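Consider the tokenized backbone below.
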């Protein structure tokens, strides 16, 4: 399942596939153990206490290891499938993943409670609740498998707005046009018309841009407001990317000078507007998974070595 699922398309494919496979395997061991234990207790009748004492060690080990693997690999898989904080909080996939994580945390707590009950040799009263939480985890996992992951260029940080600068000359008149952000949507045009002669033959009085979209569709004029010193500014909506034609009509001394220009409108930015944060989650979640794995290994080693040290410690009797 993990090979054909979302993990196979992740950037670090091998790590994502291994983590997804381990995640599914751990979930199967944990939920299978809970289900088997529930069936066994249902059929035990008067021997529930003996069954609890017999099952406590193997079940605690299997459930503990499975839940630990589930938590560590879950962080890795989440980093591979969810691009950013916005992807986590604003998409159905992200919200379902949050719900699944809450159920997993609840199941871990219930698992500890049931393990303590088994250790005391009593019937785990919360076993059915843990099984219900596990069923909820499976349901959430099925929804995630059927949903597109929350990643892609739309969740990247928006590209900064840049200006495309064009220039052409007609006689002594040099015309420079800057377009910002130079992508489909609202754009601002700034025009500078200056003469290369000193003194200029006449002051620049007005400027108008004429825009023709790619494919030769109907063009339109963009009126420009004077800013002083031969500068003008105005705005227009650009419908498409590609090569546009532009003519700047400059009025100087009562005469009009037409200056042709060609420029390319860049593709639209695929990124969504940022609601919370576009910071990638994968590095943070991978570090959290590594830290959690180290803590779990150290805790398991301490739990295994501690009793041996206690048993091996010599008993010193005080002389009377």
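A designed sequence for it:
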């Amino acid at each position: 399942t993990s090979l054909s699922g979302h993990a196979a398309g992740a950037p670090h494919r091998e790590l994502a596939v291994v983590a997804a496979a381990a995640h599914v395997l751990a979930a199967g061991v944990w939920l299978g153990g809970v289900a088997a234990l529930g069936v066994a207790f249902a059929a035990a009748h008067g021997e529930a206490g003996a069954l609890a004492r017999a099952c406590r060690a193997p079940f605690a080990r299997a459930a503990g290891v499975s839940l630990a693997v589930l938590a560590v690999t879950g962080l890795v898989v989440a980093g591979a499938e969810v691009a950013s904080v916005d992807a986590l909080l604003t998409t159905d996939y992200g919200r379902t993943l949050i719900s699944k994580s809450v159920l997993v945390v609840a199941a871990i707590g219930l698992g500890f409670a049931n393990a303590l009950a088994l250790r005391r040799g009593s019937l785990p009263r919360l076993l059915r609740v843990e099984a219900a939480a596990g069923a909820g985890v499976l349901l959430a996992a099925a929804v995630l498998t059927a949903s597109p992951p929350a990643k892609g260029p739309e969740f990247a940080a928006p590209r900064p707005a840049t200006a495309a600068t064009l220039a052409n000359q007609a006689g002594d008149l040099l015309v420079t046009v800057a377009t910002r952000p130079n992508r489909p949507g609202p754009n601002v045009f700034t025009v500078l018309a200056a003469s290369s002669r000193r003194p200029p033959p006449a002051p620049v009085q007005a400027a108008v841009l004429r825009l023709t979209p790619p494919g030769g569709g109907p063009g339109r004029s963009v009126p420009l407001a004077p800013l002083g010193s031969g500068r003008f500014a105005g705005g227009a909506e650009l419908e498409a990317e590609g090569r546009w034609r532009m003519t700047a009509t400059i009025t100087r001394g009562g005469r009009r000078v037409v200056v042709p220009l060609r420029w390319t409108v860049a593709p639209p930015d695929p990124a969504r507007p940022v609601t919370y944060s576009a910071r990638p989650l994968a590095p943070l979640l991978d570090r959290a998974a590594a830290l959690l794995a180290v803590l779990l290994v150290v805790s398991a080693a301490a739990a295994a070595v501690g009793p041996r040290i206690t048993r091996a410690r010599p008993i010193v009797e005080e002389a009377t």
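The chain has two domains: 6-156+279-312, 164-265.
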